[in-house]
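Sample pair:
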Amino acid sequence: MQDGRTTGTARAYELLEPLVQAATVRVHAAPGGYAPSGTGPTWGSGFFIAPGWVLTCAHVVGEGGAAVRLVGRELGITFSSGGGATGTVTGRVECVLPERLEERRPARRALWDLPDLALVRVLAPISHACVRLTDRARPRLDEVAYFGCTEDLGAPEITGRTTRLRGTAANGAALRLGDDDEIEPGMSGGPVVDLARGEVVGVVKARRHSGGGGLAVSVIQLRTLPLAATGQIGLYRRVIQAHDLYHYDQHLSDLGSRRTWTDVHDELPAEDDPYEGRRRLTPAERTTLCGLLAELPPPRSSEAVRALVEAARGEEPDPVLPAPLSWRDGLGMLLDPPGAAGEAAAMLRYATDVSVADHREPPSPGADEELWDWVRATAERLWRPLRRELAERHERGLVERERRRRARAGRPPAAQGRPAGEPRPGPSVLLEAWAHGWENVYDWRVSVLAGPAHPGRLTPVDSGERVTAAGLPEALRAPLAEAFRRCDTHDAAAVLEVAVAPELFGLPVDTWTVTGRAPLGVQRPVVLRHPAGSGEPPPGSEAAHRRADRWARVQAGPPLDERADCARGRPRIPDPAWLDALPDNTVPVHCRAADQEPTLGSLQAVHDAGYGVAVGRRPPADPAAPCAPFHRGLREELTEAGHGDRLPERLQALRARAHGADPDAYWADGMTLVWEDPARALPEDEPLHGDL
């Protein structure tokens, strides 16, 4: 231990060191042929976060240079098998963060892009220990210990040193480690442990060239693992569920005599903070609660977790944090709540609401009742008004859940998802962009638009200024990925709404790649809309009623196509009176460049006439190509749709077919959909253009 450490810190290190060392591993080349197991140079370190899963740094598994494949690469993992012995097993890299590292590696000796993480699957059943991960999104700047593989005495071994967190970087993705001691090269990928709370908060990433100290990656960045396909649980939720069940099972088991993480948490020196005793759950209660939550189906969406956190905490949670993807993540957002009730009350309110949540699939028999029974029993040691409040909360939740189930049961099978014409439930992702005159640079903002449940509520995710058109896809990759994590549900990918001036309707947002290899327009519905304040009529006016009527008629169908900016292939400017006289279920169609006349004027005229649904396209590469196939294909598509309600999903399906090389869908290449949903009104505010 270092000089100057407190007695409490020394005791915490003494208690936690055996647990962390038992779960920390050495990463090296995969064993093979006739080579002895576990031999070869050390690439770095890692640690077990769940049975069969090792977390390390991407640059550790990238040992060997740019020519080495990352995802799917096999490597060797030497781990503690108990009693001072070690074993070696083969692991396979399941994914790396950020995903683009697979195509774009940093220069030699340069820092790898954050979060610089890799998740490795063990390819054989083995018995091993696992660390305890934090659920606190913003770590406190306290004493920590970091562990990894060193060769101080000539042979590789797992050792630890202590230091202090000195701050954060990259919006909390990176943690700054103090310079109390040196981080050796083999320690990259090892765990960083908060000694006050006994939980892993980071992954060692890099050391300073000038001496001690360095950087670690926050383990909360695991939430940025690739998004799951619709209908699948997703890698993050699977791993975190296994993590929580491991510690729950260890806590309940009476077969072993060695200390568990929960045991050690109970022995750690008491924290000097205002939340003690009855106002906080005990370590055993926290472990049990996480285990009971892990036995339930994962939440439908990140926003479902945030809504329950807000109801339990009494205020909107921090919108800047990475999206909570599991029920456990919600607990980390309930730490240090406002008011005098304390964490225990907030967590029990949250657990009560989860126990009566309308899960996307039936939980294991009795799992939700078991969670409520635990809440009720735990509340017995707390004050009487809270016990009464929780019971009433549980009763209201049961009634509301039954009401929703009856409502769904009363619908015909074809309408189980959403009846035609009803507003789309849940939030959407809003991308706004503003051009800087003739400079060809843009300001942008990514937000979550709450939708019908909270009209006009906009939660910012990130923003930027003066980005070139070519730089927009890269600048928006991480903000859009975070927004999608907040909005996507198990059943469907959230809509991306792109609010820009009509001259930017040709911005190829649907072709950008955010996660995976498929473009955005294939992964989710992408629609265009006019920016806030672009000539919307006052509520209650005749023009507002006309807009509402036309929107409702298109949704009810059948939608009728009408060429707006051309007549049999010849460009034309539509007459406002002619537009105004078209049937309300008309969908105006544009086949020319949005930033040029006559289409630019036509788009504005269509908007002024109150049409909330319109179709356009980015012109093909060959300017002489006729537009007849586009109009013919669109007419057939609208006829098959029957009503306008599902046009965003149908266009997504067309993009997927074209992306999959279906010649019958090539006519839809570059097609865009203007979709001015009145249930998703945009708040009127102006973008920021920097300091004056």
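Residues 499 and 529 are 5 Å apart (CA to CA).
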